[in-house]
Amino acid sequence: MTGPTGLWPKTGEVPGFSGTIDRSPDSRSLSPKDKSIVSLVVPFYNEGEGVFFFHEAIVPIMEQIPGIGFEVVCVDDGSRDNTLDVLVDIARRDSRFRVVELSRNFGKEAALTAGIDAARGDAVIPIDADLQDPPELIPVLIDEWRKGAEMVLAHRSDRRSDTFMKRKTAEFFYRIHNKLSNVKVPENVGDFRLMDRAVVESLKRLPERQRFMKGLFTWVGFRTVTVSYVRKPRITGATKLSPWKLWNFALEGITSFSTAPLRIWTYVGVVGALAAFLYGSFIALRTIFFGVDVPGYASLLVSILFIGSLQLISIGVLGEYIGRIYLETKQRPTYIVRKVYQDGSSGREE
Questions:
Q1: Where are the domains of the chain?
Q2: What residues contact 70, with CB distance under 8 A and at least 6 apart?
Q3: How far is CA 232 from CA 71, 128, 158, 193, in A?
Q4: Which superfamily does 6-240+333-341 belong to?
Q5: Distance, CA of 268 to CA of 299 (rounded, Å)
Q6: What is the pLDDT along the chain (350 residues), one digit of tens a residue?
Q7: What are residue 228's DSSP bridge partners?
């Protein structure tokens, strides 16, 4: 069974799922009809040590907001530790929790997409499991939503919990991305936000397989407000994003929303051709009036190496875009769901 961008099991574990998730009132009756439903989407990857802390932090928040019913969609992104077992145990004891098990590790963007596709609420809040994004902010997001906002951004006003290098590289990325792209990604705003059902349905209609979610969240638009918070240190464990993964993530963001890197090389070529023409004219005139100089082999070699390096860089940029086209044309699903655990279900399908 194929979803908007992912592949779901044929066993009907997602009620009402037939190509797109059924959003009729009956299909999302997680609590009395007079309540709104808010879905929390939480990707997990090797977070076995932190699942208990997340559960203990999120449950009191869900119980303190009147008139709101909650579901927590936990996406296990191919964890190799006991993350899935702990999540399934929680889902068995608390019917508000559902666990979507992916068939392997597809990456955070794919896991986030799977959770958003599975969410059945009137609003959806993606949040990380490491508790750096405070659950205590959820009531504030919901208050802004009730006032009419369709997208409520959570802005990190203080990132001192991150390393100096991470803060500076993030600042550099936002600056470069927003200069090159027509879609301006808000600086210091992560995946943590609230999205109205209208926003979620618009996201699900986007056909990209290679997904840069921060850009897609911004691209769909809608009425947006921003609230600020101070980001906390991780409760346990360490980040799964290495510098190399962050570099590739930055390339993904730029190539997803801008063709400026391709256009730049057109301008570089024009400037190079003009410089070569002027330099050639200068050499010709100097030869006519002053005779032939001793050949400059060193300058010739440096020029060849410089031009060759520019050509290799431009080919690399072109390759990034061709690679994206290649991956998109294969039409592979963004993720594959192995099993969904809900309503007290337990155990694994082998």
A1: 6-240+333-341, 260-329
A2: 30, 37, 38, 39, 40, 62, 96, 121
A3: 24, 12, 9, 16
A4: Spore Coat Polysaccharide Biosynthesis Protein SpsA; Chain A (3.90.550.10)
A5: 20
A6: 555 566 666 544 443 333 333 333 333 444 333 468 899 999 998 887 888 888 888 899 888 888 888 999 999 988 888 888 889 888 888 888 999 989 888 888 888 889 988 989 899 999 988 888 888 889 999 988 888 888 898 888 776 666 666 667 666 666 776 676 777 777 778 888 899 998 899 888 887 777 777 778 888 888 888 888 887 776 665 555 556 566 565 666 566 666 666 677 677 777 776 776 677 677 667 767 766 665 666 566 667 767 777 777 777 777 777 777 777 677 778 888 888 887 655 444 43
A7: 155
The rounded distance, in Å, linking the Cα atoms of 245 and 241 is 6
